[in-house]
Amino acid sequence: MAGGRIPESFISDLLARVDIVDVISPRVDLKRAGREWRGLSPFSNEKTPSFFVSPAKQMYFDFSSGQNGNAIGFLMAYERLDFVEAVEELARQLGLEVPREGGRGGPSRAATAGPLEALETAQRHFEGQLRRSQVAIDYLKRRGVDGATAQAFGIGFAPDSWDSLTRQFSDPRHALAAGLLIARDDDPARGCYDRFRNRLTFPIRDTRGRVIAFGGRTLGVDPAKYLNSPETDLFHKGRQLYGLYEARQAESHPSELFVVEGYMDVVGLARHGIRTAVATLGTATTSDHLHLLFRSTRRVVFCFDGDAAGRRAAWKALEQALPTLGPGREVRFMFLPDGHDPDSLVAEQGVEAWARALEAAQPLSRFLLDSVSAECDLTSPDGRAQLVSRCKPHLDRIEDAATRTAIVDALVPRTRLSHAELESILRGNRAAGAEAGAGGGAERRQKPVGRALQLLLETPALAARVADLEELAQAAQPGVDLLVAVLDHLIEYPDTTAAGLLRDWHDPEQRAILEKLARPQALPPADPDSEFDEIIARLRDRGRRLRVQELLDAAGARELSAGEMAELRALTAARAAAQPRADE
Questions:
Q1: What is the pTM of this model?
Q2: Nearest-CA neighbor of 161 among 132, 118, 203?
Q3: Given this model, what pLDDT does residue 578 score?
Q4: What is the DSSP secondary structure assignment for residue 5, as one 8-state letter?
Q5: For residue 62, which phi and psi values (nearest 5 degrees)?
Q6: 437-473, pLDDT tens digit by residue?
Q7: For the purposes of burial, counting CB atoms within 10 Å of the CB of 358, is it exposed (0-12), middle (13-18) or buried (19 or more)?
Q8: Structural contact between residues 440 and 363, judged by C-beta atoms closer than 8 angstroms
């Protein structure tokens, strides 16, 4: 990822170009509901649709979870992206390159361009060497890997040479930075040599398909059977998954992704038509891995050996998965028969064996409760109390309330307690305190000002109908200063949507008010132009009336100036001509 700050102008332009309905509809089943689109909340486990998307405002509103925002905010919440990643994802959908200004935040574009080019050079070299190595080709054939599969994954070969790749670079700087070469005695001036030698090479790609590192499988006698590139500015093994790019190429939104152990497991499964497997890179599953997986699918299936080591690895994956759980997200654990890895199981017994193993996969809740229950004597009250105590720290790590409740429900029969009793033990008095402190009263506002703001957020072009903001500001009505500020912004930037207005609004308290007013209306106005004009007229009349009273009070204490007398006559005439309805 290139460093530096993304210009605000680019973000505004991006939000102006994108249609939030196009962003959300592939992820949430939406149906037309008047001027909005409606569907089930992707952030809570609801049965009645309370999730709305407004094309006019370019905003989403989730009344179930209380969330709302623009297209960037939705991607951040739904895909678990940070802000920069969400901007880059939207830009990718529109075919735009994200510009950067100077600043901190990671390796610069210049710092990564050279290593990326070196990695591409290495990839071409390794693929060319594979075509010349009968030993490597014979090994792949023995493993059942055909030419098409090898080509799809970019499998190559690093010859048994100290400088086969080194000779491809007149200047080794970028290849060293990419981890392809090693400096002799840690001094590049003394020369370099190849990191990968006599190994099949597996390019590791990022989500954009760029080669950022390599894995290598030895074809000789080497205690290091598998070797990965070292950590670099481009490559962090705890944040990358082998085969994810290829899986997304096979299915853009796969129904499930299988997490297996090694490169050959991914390649072997693909050879038999199972194209949605990925592998961690010689490290335990991390939270970054989970976030990466859930950007692409709603179901993650971990595949482990059925022995003790496999179950320990599964437990570590479960611990990382707990905070990432939420509505529409599912984690399962698939344990393979003794003596088999994914590649050998499918090669020897066919895809039917894989399907049977998947059918027997355990949901996370069952694996969690079975694993903890195995350590407790559930025939005794003390053992059941111990089960609750041991489950509590794991349940506390689950941020999604609906998921946590479902697991507590599954715990009920094992403890012989009611759900309420369990919750009382697990939460103590904190839940009652949290509920008592939640949902404070809405800020009180006069109806005309709030309604005018609501109409403006619905139809920003109404701002052009207001001519004199100074006169309106004299209404001295609660919230009128915010109304005038919004009108001023919309008049200056006539193409602004409600989403753009909220993004640019810097006062957090005012933004919270505007966010509440921007929510979809149960009964949209039949004639928003007339209603808005009438509200503005009433507010203007209030301002005029207050100014008239102010001048009359001054006249009782002193003689008015000629200018003040002229203003008083003009205001009185304007009020008589307008004849607005009485204030509400």
A1: 0.61
A2: 132
A3: 60
A4: B
A5: -115, 100
A6: 333 333 333 468 888 888 888 888 898 888 777 777 7
A7: middle
A8: no
Q: Give CB contacts under 8 A, 24+ apart, made by 546-549.
A: 546/474, 546/475, 546/476, 547/474, 547/571, 548/572, 548/575
Q: Is the pLDDT of residue 237 over 60?
A: yes
Residue 569 binned pLDDT confidence (cut-offs 50, 70, 90): confident
448 C-beta neighbours (distance < 10 Å), count: 21
Supply the pLDDT for residue 575: 63
Residue entry with tokens 């799809």:
152
- Residue whose tokens read 């299936």: 301
CA 147 to chain centre: 36
For 260, which DSSP code? Answer: E
E strands, 207-293, are 211-218, 226-228, 257-260, 277-279
Give per-residue pLDDT as tens, 206-233. 877 889 999 999 998 888 899 999 999 8
Q: Which amino acid is at 355?
A: A
Handedness of CA 143, 146, 152, 154 (dihedral sign): positive
For the chain, domains (ranges, CATH) are: 8-94 (3.90.580.10), 109-235 (3.90.980.10), 261-360 (3.40.1360.10), 375-430 (1.20.50), 447-578 (1.10.860.10)
